[in-house]
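User: Second chain of the day. Same drill as before.
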Amino acid sequence: MGLFSLFNVPKNASRSAIKTLKLKRHIIKILITEGNYTIVDLSNKTYFSVPTVTKVINSLLKDNIVLDLGKIDTSGGRRPNLYGINSKSGFFLGIEVNRKFLTIGLQDLKNEFVKINERIPFELSETHGSLSELCSRINEFVEASGIDRRNIIGACVNLSGRINSVKGYSYNYFYIEEDSLSHTISTQIGINTYLENDTRAMAFGEYNCGVVNGEKNVIFVNMSWGVGIGIITDGQLYYGHSGYSGEFGHSPLFDNNILCQCGKRGCLETEVSGWALERIFKDAIREGNISLAGNADNMESIENIDLERIINAVVMDEDTLAIDIISALGEKMGRYISLLINVFNPELVVIGGIMSTVGDYLMLPILTAIKKYSLNLVSQDMELKLSSLGSHAGVAGACYIVRKKFMEQLD
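Assistant: Same format as last time:
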């Protein structure tokens, strides 16, 4: 029958059948969130009799949702059996969509990756062809995983920009169908699909299995092609009234008259994002500055400079020009993170995204600027940390979002 049978309630189901179904959900939630228990333990936790719990456990064993883990030692009397969730009875699918590649991962019920593929070739564009390719890549991944599609509880697709997670629309990409994007993808891959903003998903990944260590009020700063923030308040993702929170990169902080990708001028992204880094770096080369990543004598080499090449110049070559520019961007970013700290008073600020892979070359200027510009009483008990999940933050967060949706359905 599988986990999906837990949500299929026949129209003519008796009150007793509905009660049994709810007990199944309750027991499964306990075993997933708390670990393994005996039937007596489950009886005490659910307030149902031992015979009733035994009947439900036997049904879940038959459906291969629960495993009999054998007998445990006791101080006396008959040794009881221990029961636990079969982590392979259900899976969560996460998809991180980047401009030129995908990262797709599949986690089991214990949130362990059973398969993850990075840098799957893909070209993100506002076309039907790009959407069709996205669905094809997801289907190819699922087929290659060897996991029965019917056991995949749900999928979450992360995209940058403005996402309405409730209605399943992206207003930056694939806003080309009359139907919601989540429903369109669900139909093409045969798996119930959710949409999420990439930065919020990364924040949720770090919160659940990354660098966050018990902190409940966290700001995640995604420094990639653009700049976004994910906000966690009291352990919950903050979406805002319309679901578009976190568009920090489109704050009009500079009087530079540079046109942002959002259509406005002087946004934060025009001076501290990945695409800003490319522009600034290329301009520096054209002005005669020397770098291993390109030179002014070869215009073709300048045009081929991209964000990854600049990051490699920092990390692999310790390129002076690349380090200087990254450090300058870090100082600016730190100044405006101070604004966030003064407003939100978080326990922890996490720096992630592609640009964070340069490590201390970015982190130290950010920290210095935070100390310089933020209010001491607000920042003195705040920590600044580098993402520990790196390129896996988004796909891990996507899987945890599906898990959260599933757990809410068990209530």
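The two ends are 20 Å apart (CA to CA).

User: Great, on to the next one.
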